[in-house]
Amino acid sequence: MKFLPSRVFVNLGVVDFFFLAMAFVLVPGIMAMDDNIRRRGQEVVKEGIFLVTLVPWQSFWIKCLEMVLCGRLGRLVLSTFSGRRFAMWVQAILEVYFMALWFILYLEARQKDSELGGRRFGREELERCIDKI
């Protein structure tokens, strides 16, 4: 990988790097739904990694599908069979789809976190999160 220095890649490991990448996907959701807007970035990233570890297989498969369908391979396959403009249009729709899917996964991870803490993640908590947005 050219964009990462080799020492960082070796220290993190492939699996840790993958979970870190998925955590950064959940960080905007955490920032939008957070009660405390004064938290530091490090705390938000730690919470993102924690939430990804609550739903590891779902986040793994969603990230794999997103990389294949919205990446260069998806664009190449779609443009080969249907044209470049149609491929860009379909990829834009897929990006929005995956954004919504990540948001649903974020809510599922929050619900599991609440269950582990002995709390309930119900309608009131969801309404409070929506009111903050």
TrEMBL record:
InterPro entries: DUF7813. Keywords: Membrane, Transmembrane, Transmembrane helix. The chain crosses the membrane at residues 12-32, 86-107. This is Uncharacterized protein. PANTHER family: TRANSMEMBRANE PROTEIN. Pfam families: DUF7813. It comes from Vanilla planifolia (Vanilla).
